[in-house]
Amino acid sequence: MPTWLSTWHLFVDELQVHFGLSDPVGNANNLIDNLHMKPGDKIAMYNVEFMWYAAQLNWGDSVLCHCFYQGLPNCLQDPIANQEQGKPNSFLAMYQLAITFDNYYWERNCERDCLRNTEKEAADSHHQKQGKMTQYSAFSQSSTLPHSQLSTTSPQTAPSQSSLKPPRTSPSIAKSPSLFTPLLRRTNV
Fold it and tell me: What are the backbone angles phi and psi of residue 85, rounded to the nearest 5°?
């Protein structure tokens, strides 16, 4: 029996030799250099990945601060760079400021979405009301015959008095004289 099967530590070492990375520090270095916050992600995902790679490196505070900033999207870099006191020089200050601006960004994004939804609902409600008025107007215009057709129509094809009545509507629509003027003219003939 091989010796690496006798203890867990030797077993893990043997796995690392056969399947592990040949240069884990170099790999972490490459990954952190190419790490960027993905569009639509919150900063928590970026922070987890960055901290994972940073823990494997022995980099100084200012280098980590610079790499962290470089991986942020423009929507976070801009407010950080426009600070009155300038960009932070320490990683911890940069980290905390990025979290703060990310929270502001997503809070404002939520406000914009709510405002858009409210405006859309108001517009849909308005269009729905306009659509009902247009449908009623189209109905009343299509059910009226021109005065010349009324006089030439035979009694069998003339519309009955009950078909000339407007459909039931709300009191505000019924009071509108412009909708019923063609009907009133036709019934008076």
Answer: -85, 5
The answer to whether the beta carbons of residues 10 and 3 sit under 8 Å apart is yes
Phi/psi of residue 39, nearest 5 degrees: -60, 135
Instruction: Give the span between the Cα atoms of 108 and 57, in whole angstroms.
Output: 35
Phi, psi (degrees; rounded to nearest 5) at 83: -60, 145
Predicted confidence (pLDDT) per residue in 91-135, tens digit: 999 999 999 999 999 999 889 888 888 888 888 777 777 766 666
DSSP 8-state assignment for residue 3: G
| DSSP assigned state of 37 | P
- Cβ neighbour number for residue 143 with a 10 Å cutoff: 16
Show the tokens assigned to 106.
């997503």
* pLDDT at 141 (0 to 100): 57
pTM above 0.70, yes or no: no
φ, ψ for residue 153 (rounded to 5)?
-80, 140
Instruction: Convert the pLDDT of each residue in 42-71 to its tens digit.
Output: 999 999 999 988 888 888 899 999 999 999
Tokens of 157: 């094809």
Give the residue from 90, 167, 94 showing the smallest Cα distance to 133.
167
